[in-house]
Design goal:
- Helices cover about 25% and strands about 15% of the residues.
- By secondary structure, the chain is an alpha/beta fold.
- It comes from Fraxinus pennsylvanica.
- This is Isoamylase 1-3-like C-terminal domain-containing protein.
- InterPro entries: GH (IPR017853), Glyco_hydro_b (IPR013780), ISOA1-3-like_C (IPR048650).
Length: about 475
């Protein structure tokens, strides 16, 4: 039995609801529709799309082309299979596994390319999706023998296609074979990337790792080291701290280690490199100090994400502090650990949810966070003279706005108070405190701002502030 087949047999026992691996490209799992039958799904999906577009929501489905369904292959020409699945000809034609699912499509073979392109066009023309996020997209950059290609035909074909080139194209620029292409994914000026370095560097700085201040500043300002060198823009960096794989945001601040025994793989699945910190206790606790610290850290992560240059991405459920109880590989569970819990959302609307939604609104109404070009020296002032100090975990800076609406931000990842010296505001302006993550709701975010900011501000341990000049 192939690895892929074993995985799917295993998923039956943990109530899988992944939705991956349809047996016919261009089709969707029917349980995503309200009624059975492909035609009813099209009707339902287009109704859903109309509602989304009225609310400025644009669907971008995830594509898992590299790993086909392990079900029995129905093929009129069995001799054509070698062109579809990559095989190691030096090892008894064993299937090459760059997808983690036991098999990998030969995506740059002309026949397979045609299959993938036709499928993508079908989703655009029939379902009117706005783009695609490509799972393990580095697989799409490998040749017939699995070696990396500098100019993959499939990636180029998608970028140049008269239909697909108008879509949002987002790559997850790595695969299970170690081909890590963050900042180097072939793009033809069209492809954006999940920025895995943003995730790791921001996690490490906020949790208080030494020596991460410079890296945090680089990621915050759009990762010019990764994207300016190949003539891309800040928005080509899809910034994220949390994704569907790995810990939720709550679990990131509640667990030092993964807890994956429920997955039936002896705890051997899932990443061990989570850059998480449990704030002093592993898992659930009633300790009010630890709970308050976790709340601050979640707000710190969200503030950093929503004020960074680039395209922010967050995980559904983090707005109400969803937990999977330390499981960082829960894809196979069709249970409450993966379901959106509306009741918890309602109960959080006065604190955690409020902060998250208000910070998002603030970003959307401030052009200073959504620059088309990378920040230059005249557009940011770093209030910092300790760049070389490996022990320093404090960073403060002012982002300048041409209309005078400057933004001052400070992040304190130390375990002690920092007295920050506040710079003078622009002429005829005053500083107003909008965010202090150390304060409880509703004072942690005040949209109109709180006046009376003096020339210094005491910033609590593991907290951050945002001031706006008005």
């Amino acid at each position: 039995m192939s690895t892929a087949k074993q995985i799917w047999e295993h998923l039956k026992h943990i109530h899988s609801g992944t939705g991956n691996g349809t047996q016919i490209y261009g089709m969707c799992k029917l349980y995503f529709g309200l009624e059975k039958g492909s035609s009813s799904f099209v009707e339902y999906y287009n109704k859903l799309l109309a509602v989304c577009q009225k609310r400025n929501v644009h669907p971008v489905p995830s594509v898992s082309s590299p790993s086909p369904d392990p079900a029995p292959v129905i093929c009129s020409n069995p001799g054509s299979l070698p062109i579809a699945l990559r095989k190691d000809l030096d090892n008894n034609a064993k299937l090459l596994n760059f997808s983690g699912c036991g098999n990998t499509l030969n995506c740059n073979h002309p026949v397979v390319m045609e299959l993938i392109l036709d499928s993508l066009r079908h989703w655009v023309l029939e379902y009117h999706v706005d783009g695609f996020r490509f799972d393990l997209a580095s697989v799409l950059c490998r040749g017939t023998d699995g070696s990396p290609l500098s100019a993959p035909p499939l990636i180029r074909a998608i970028a140049k296609d008269s239909i697909l080139s108008r879509c949002k194209l987002i790559s997850e620029p790595w695969d299970c074979g170690g081909l890590y292409l963050v900042g180097r994914f072939p793009n033809w000026d069209r492809w954006a990337e999940w920025n895995g370095k943003y995730r790791d560097d921001v996690r490490r700085f906020i949790k208080g790792d030494h020596g991460m201040k410079g890296s945090f500043a680089t990621r915050f300002t759009g990762s010019a080291d990764l994207y300016r060198v190949n003539k891309r823009k800040p928005y080509h960096s899809v910034n994220f701290v949390i994704a569907h794989d790995g810990f939720t945001l709550y679990d990131l601040v509640s667990y030092n280690n993964k807890h994956n025994n429920a997955n039936g793989e002896g705890g051997n699945d899932g990443s061990n490199d989570n850059f998480s910190w449990n704030c002093g206790f592993e898992g659930e606790t009633e300790d009010t100090n630890i709970k308050a610290l976790r709340s601050r850290q979640m707000k710190n992560f969200h503030l950093a994400l929503m004020t960074s240059q680039g395209t922010p991405m967050m995980l559904m459920g983090d707005e109400y502090a969803h937990t999977r109880y330390g499981n960082n590989n829960s894809y196979g569970h069709d249970t409450a650990i993966n379901h959106f819990q509306w009741d918890r959302l309602e109960s959080k609307k006065n604190d955690h949810f409020r902060f998250f939604s208000e910070v998002i609104k603030f970003r959307n109404t401030r052009d200073v966070f959504r620059r088309e070009n990378f920040i230059g020296k005249k557009e940011v002032t770093w209030h910092e003279d300790n760049w070389e100090n490996h022990e320093s975990k404090f960073l403060a800076f002012t982002i300048h706005d041409e209309n005078g609406g400057d933004i001052y931000l400070a992040f304190n990842a130390h375990d002690f108070f920092i007295r920050a010296i506040i710079p003078s505001p622009p002429q005829s302006k005053r500083w107003f405190r909008v965010v202090d993550t150390n304060l409880e709701s509703p004072n942690d975010f005040v949209c109109e701002g709180v006046a009376g900011i003096q020339d210094s501000y005491n910033i609590a341990p593991y907290s951050s502030i945002l001031l706006e000049a008005k």
